Amino acid sequence: MPLPSVQSRALPDYVLRTSPRCKRVLIKINPLGRVEVVIPQGFDISQVPAILQQRQYWLDMHLAKLKARWAEAPHEHALRPLHIPLRALDRCWQVEYVSGSGKRLHLQMDEQRLQLRYPQITEADVDALISQRLQKWLSEQARQHLLPWLAQTAEQLGLTYTKACIRAQKTRWGSCSAGKVINLNRNLLFLPPPLVRYLFVHELSHIRHMNHSSQFWQQVSKYEPDYRRLDAELGQAGKHLPRWVHV
Q: What whole-number distance in Å separates Cα of residue 6 and Cα of residue 154?
């Protein structure tokens, strides 16, 4: 059966970006459904609409899947979640939103509740402001809990690193540099504790082996015998991330 014609449908909104390292036109869709077109330097941008039309069936299919995914997701995946479960800590915060009269967003926190008092601006701007503030709060929680947890794990394993940092990485859960600096993704807080510990073991093992050689995996297996299953689960763990962390 031939694919349906897409020439008459309107193209989705997209962001255009030029990259000196790009060798060909790339079309990316982020988890919120935003389309980005990356082009090499010197590329004729007038060709971009035609390229998007050629890929429109693919674009429509993936955008529809994303729309359905978020429509069926629990409310914790909304841009204004009513509760935020951090599985790594076995804790959940209730979230309350209050329209205020000021010009800035204010967050108040206690043991089980977050209150966000937001200014009277457009709904879209409020959503972006709330997501940004929640991401900042998430980074604060990650520094408070993930860094001591990593230090404790390193001590148990008898491994020493130079420094540890919390990052908002888009494609990595963590990394270890040649200088033994470990970066941890703040979104690890959404994952179950066994996956977080495995990520720690994985990155700490890079202190001795800066590769993924057989010697590296032997090192990992010493501290986590079930590493194959955990590594496979970590590869699929993006499903645990709520929508607002992508804004």
A: 55
